[in-house]
Amino acid sequence: METFDVVVVGAGSAGAAVARRLADDDALRVLLLEAGGPDVNPDIHDPGGVFRLWGGPEDYDYRVAPQTRLGGRRPHWPRGKVLGGSSSLNGMIFVRGAPADYDAWGPGWSYPEVLPYFKRLEDFDRGAGDYHGAGGPVRVIADYAPHQVNAAIVAAAVEQGMPFNPDCNAERPDGAGFCQLTIRHGRRHSTADAYLRPRCDRPVLEIRTRARARRLIMRGRRCVGVEYAQDGRLHRVEAAHQVVVSAGTVESPRLLLLSGLGDAAGLRRHGLAVVEDLPGVGRNLHDHALVPVIVAARRPVPPALPGLQPMHSQLFWRSRPGLPGPDVQPLFFHIPLYDEDMTGPDDAFTLMAGIVRPESRGHLALTSADPDAPLHIDPAYLRASADRACMLAAVELCRELTHAAALREWAGPELYPGDRELSEHIERTLVTYHHQVGTCAMGTVVDQRLRVHGIDGLRVADASVMPAVTSGNTNAPAIMIGERCADMVREEIGS
Q1: How far, in Å, CA of 260 to CA of 266, rounded?
Q2: Smallest Cα–Cα separation from 96: which of 58, 138, 59?
Q3: Where is the Glucose-methanol-choline oxidoreductase N-terminal domain (predicted)?
Q4: Cα separation of 65 and 86, whole Å?
Q5: What CA–CA distance (Å, rounded) separates 2 from 347?
Q6: Who's near 83: CB < 8 A, 6+ residues apart?
Q7: From CA 486, how far away is CA 479, in angstroms rounded?
Q8: pLDDT tens digits, residue range 86-113?
Q9: pLDDT tens figures, 431-489
Q10: On the CB side of 62, how many CA atoms lie within 13 Å of its CA?
Q11: Rounded distance, CA 243 to CA 430, Å?
Q12: How distant, in Å, are the alpha carbons of 11, 98, 264, 266 from that of 14?
């Protein structure tokens, strides 16, 4: 069996950062396993191609369980199955969330403790400062000319009393402004581009694509390697020091469960031997959610700008007093986002009402011991009454913005929800904000140093370890988790 010092499972937002930072140390041999293929699809690299990627070969294309609060609908979850993971499929929006978000993550994860890692990973186009870094792997842009409609919606929010915030990643995210984006020279800057491509020729880092991990190899209570499938054959590799699972909020818990790490009764139901009874694996699943407000345009909407995606303006807002951070994050598009049951003109635009501090908690579970069997995924959208109230407030806020004078030259009739009852519109149109977290949470599944409880030599590092989701897009925090994990592994090996 081949032996590496560290085996990393998953080349996504966190896994690419883990592998690259460890491979910067010439003393460590690192193997990175990615279930998907190389990132050769041109739509990955074109910021305007984001929607063309969904449902394609680079997408896991999950469907969640029927949602009781959504009329039994099963929303689609696009997730990256390619080098760069979901950073190769996402909207390229770079948001850290409110500093207070990290207080819920436990010792060692307060905002002052994670801020140096955010700065380390960043190459900010405005340069370094108290809240930003320059020269890091990930290019983040803030100084660009926005689309006219995106700019008008931001102006409408300011007119309605929201502060203009030129930097949502500084002291406070609250207010309206333009998104910071992971775009470099007009192309998506995924973690494959940022972390892996500059180091892919280093002999200490080996990357294997189309290599899907099927189980962890255990020796007693120590993880010693990974079994994976590639080209129709099973392979086994050994890790002399550590295995780091960075397969994402859906695939990381699946791998742990298939390896006997999870709720003992559930594992036995599928004939799996129990290595460690960890009931938290797969629990605590939660996600941000979006609902569209679509408005017909009074005049032709200009085409998309080269090198930008259509959603590059946003608003952070608190629906009620007493919150430690915003709970609403509408995202603004200069195109209409009609679903399969909607019709309307091409000249229209969308204000997506988003909730980003959900109280609802769901779970995922195996349906079989077969690694290729579909999972049961239940995010429990809007199960908590507070989430329903928050989404209603978010939709009403977006509707109000369309009546501002700043949008007068653009905003025609409201197409959706129009005259439909709001709760019915929410039930019929709610979709994921693509920010699923929590299924291997710190505290219940891993400790504050990301080590799986009861097992030596095994860590999890991705969005699944977040005990509570950040109040904003999750790509930046996931990369930060990968950066921190690499330091933790190196420190442990060195000691």
Answers
A1: 10
A2: 138
A3: 80-103, 248-262
A4: 21
A5: 57
A6: 11, 16, 34, 36, 37, 38, 39, 190, 192, 196, 207, 209
A7: 11
A8: 999 999 999 999 999 998 899 999 999 9
A9: 999 999 999 999 999 999 999 999 999 999 999 999 999 999 999 999 999 999 999 99
A10: 26
A11: 37
A12: 7, 20, 28, 28
Residue 495 pLDDT class (50, 70, 90 cuts): low
Beta strands, E only, 270-375: 276-277, 289-297, 311-316, 331-333, 348-355, 363-365
Q: Are 5 and 31 in contact (CB under 8 A)?
A: no
Contact 195, 16 (CB under 8 A): yes
Domains and CATH numbers, the chain: 1-99+190-286+364-380+436-495 (3.50.50.60), 143-179+289-355+382-429 (3.30.410.40)
Q: Within a 10 A sphere around the Cβ of 115, how many other Cβ atoms?
A: 18
| Beta carbons within 8 Å of 250's beta carbon, 6+ residues apart | 60, 62, 77, 79, 364, 375, 377, 436, 439
pLDDT for 201: 75
Spell out where 16-156 has E strands: 30-33, 62-63, 76-77, 122-124, 138-140
Half-sphere exposure for 24 (CA within 13 Å, toward CB): 14
**In this structure, are residues 53 and 44 in contact, taking their beta carbons and an 8 Å threshold?**
yes
How is residue 197 written in tokens? 């491509």
Marked catalytic residue, from 189, 334, 434, 435 = 435
pTM for the structure as a whole: 0.98
Can you read off the two tokens belonging to residue 460? Answer: 């999890």
DSSP 195: I
Number of residues in the chain: 495
- The confidence score (pLDDT) of residue 199 equals 80
Phi, psi of 119 (to 5 degrees): -70, -35
Residue 435 is among the residues annotated as catalytic for this protein: yes
Strands (E), 318-391: 331-333, 348-355, 363-365, 376-378
3-state helix, strand, coil in the chain (%, to 5): 25, 25, 45
- Rounded to whole angstroms, the Cα distance separating 208 from 201 reads 13
